[in-house]
């Protein structure tokens, strides 16, 4: 068989070089005009909508500034600061107003006529470039940008005001409290009872069974009144003081020599604040005694000093030294012996 023949279904056919077919340029489909292109009233309605959206953005930014300066930061709703809720809602309106306004402007008012331009050499000739500029100018004229002064003013106003919503809170924090020593301590003190979160019920050691896990906070009657629930300070202090307490078989626990008296009959308590970026670690696996952080999967071994066994965290969870009082309630022996949570400047370890 010669080289210029191929076998197809048992028969021989001479192979030929087939030239590619020439397809005609389908061109651009017929332009579908929008209602606003032919109806001035529809165009004005679209312009009004866009202006309204930009005004909403401006009002959102102004509302954010008012909330930042006027609302107290010590009131809360369902545990969330009222000021934070208001700032979030105002910022949402500021962003949505600009975004939706720009989208509606582009879809309803700006020219949507498709223009085809043949490209050959990388650098176009002066005539081609002049033609391109003319087409752009024609598009601008078709969109009526020059005629819509109110529209331009609303857009410029929204864009000019919006950065204040980000800059003012940042500038306002310049004079904030930068005392980092408060990160080194929590409201745990000697004799403060361990209580369930959020019911604030003191916990007796006899009620804690092997394998159980408790989300723990300081018993509110044992701490200073200035940081009790209902105060702004309570939210900050509770965030640092949250603890996960579990009870294991004492034979399964590995304890350093200087920490053998920090637990009570297999009951150990560790900070719930992840040492990676501060997320609450609360997913306890009873069989392995592993504690998982849901944010970035850092895993700590509760049976071995809460050491890191997986994930990006670099330090074990701080342990809260505990014991029992005369009534059998679990109490703290002291505060944590090291700062809780992730690293910060001037931290020694």
UniProtKB/TrEMBL annotation:
Oxidoreductase is among the record's keywords: yes
One Pfam family here: QcrA_N
Transmembrane intervals: 49-71, 83-103
Region (Disordered): 1-41
CC cofactor: [2Fe-2S] cluster
Localisation per UniProt entry: Cell membrane
Ranges of biased composition (kind: Polar residues): 1-24
GO cellular component: plasma membrane
GO molecular function, one term: monooxygenase activity
InterPro entries to which the protein is assigned, alphabetical: QcrA_N (IPR045603), Rieske_2Fe-2S (IPR017941), Rieske_2Fe-2S_sf (IPR036922), Rieske_Fe-S_prot (IPR014349), Rieske_Fe-S_prot_C (IPR005805)
Membrane topology classification: Multi-pass membrane protein
Residue span(s) of domain Rieske: 262-331
Domain of life of the native organism: Bacteria
Record keywords, A-Z: 2Fe-2S, Cell membrane, Disulfide bond, Electron transport, Iron, Iron-sulfur, Membrane, Metal-binding, Oxidoreductase, Respiratory chain, Transmembrane, Transmembrane helix, Transport
Family indicated by similarity: Belongs to the Rieske iron-sulfur protein family.
Function: Iron-sulfur subunit of the cytochrome bc1 complex, an essential component of the respiratory electron transport chain required for ATP synthesis. The bc1 complex catalyzes the oxidation of menaquinol and the reduction of cytochrome c in the respiratory chain. The bc1 complex operates through a Q-cycle mechanism that couples electron transfer to generation of the proton gradient that drives ATP synthesis.
The protein's name: Cytochrome bc1 complex Rieske iron-sulfur subunit
